[in-house]
Amino acid sequence: MSGPTPKLHLPFAKWPEIDQRMWNVVKENDDPFDDGPSVRLAKTTLYKYWMGWRRFLGFLAIIEPDALKQKPFERLTRERVRRFVDHLRETNTAHSVAIQIDSLYGAARTLMLDKGWSWLLSIKTRLYAAAPRGNRVRPVITSVQLVDLGMGLMQESKISSNKPIPMVDAIRYRDGLMIALLAQIPLRPKNAAALEIGRDVINENDN
Cβ neighbours of residue 112 under 8 Å, at least 6 residues apart? Predict the structure, then answer.
């Protein structure tokens, strides 16, 4: 039988002891006279770096567990980062890979300020430059299109007063009615949810 699937993020309790000590120093250091970079970082930024570091450690735990026995500075090499990038590309977009390497770079600078990380900076910069920015322009959907969509859903449900209504048709009719109604009369979600047929929504052609 195979063992449990390794976690992509190595839990803090399983970090090498030296990594735990270094991170605790960073996290607990609130000395205003300290020159360390962590003093100037927001907690959200430190959390981002922490996630970046534990993701890298998780990668090493999967492909090269013996590397966790090395000192952090010796462990973080160009070749391992290259393999880490390839590993991330299997399940992440190019932009997400760049973000995660950015977090790794931030963690390295925070934990080991006295070391030179220009090569890692260059890698994360190139990854950002190579990542497609994507098209931020989205097609405009008009209220007329929404009304047509809503009416189409209502017609597809084929509701009849002389036979039982299947749940799937009832839901489709309800959704179509709400889409068509809100396309013509925009309401806040809370107000839309409080609408009641016969009280707030009235059929004026009903004799």
Answer: 22, 72, 73
